[in-house]
Amino acid sequence: MRERRRGHAEITTVAKGTHMRSPSVLLLASLTMTGATLAQTPQTSAPATPAPATTTAPEAQAASATPVPKPAPVGTMSELMLRVIYPYSDAMFYIQREPPKNDVEWNELQGKALALAEFGNLMMMPGRARDQDQWLRDAKLLAEAGAAALRFAKAKDLEGIVGLNEQLVTSCTSCHMHYRPNYGRRRGQAPTQK
Is the overall model pTM greater than 0.85, yes or no? Predict the structure, then answer.
């Protein structure tokens, strides 16, 4: 008898002149060979589309009852001013003291300008905005000054950033005049009457 391998199935061929004792052995061998061949042939038919998801009424209610996450302030406005906005705006105000000398320093300046622009947006968020009028206008001034600083920093335009000084000062002082008590007064100076 000769043996041959095809795939993973092993089939025994009957030698010439011998008689098969059982037709079921031939049938079993044929089915095994066909199954092995089909298992190794890549399927080219279109992938079955998944059955539509079915949800029960309680599952649908639970999904719709899940609250949508909303932004919530983490730090106070004072913390944002002292730890982020002041130092990042100072990088713009005093850029002539130590101008960026290489790509790393320009990239750092871009990050600070981007942060100023985004902090202007952050100040307009619900939960941050103190009112829907002057506060939003003042925050928009910061966002615009930061966005302009980012454009100049990307272009490595030192004079462009220096030219933004007035716009940045205006964005800061306008907000401080409206929302910081005693802004612009010296210690011991009495508040002015309106």
Answer: no
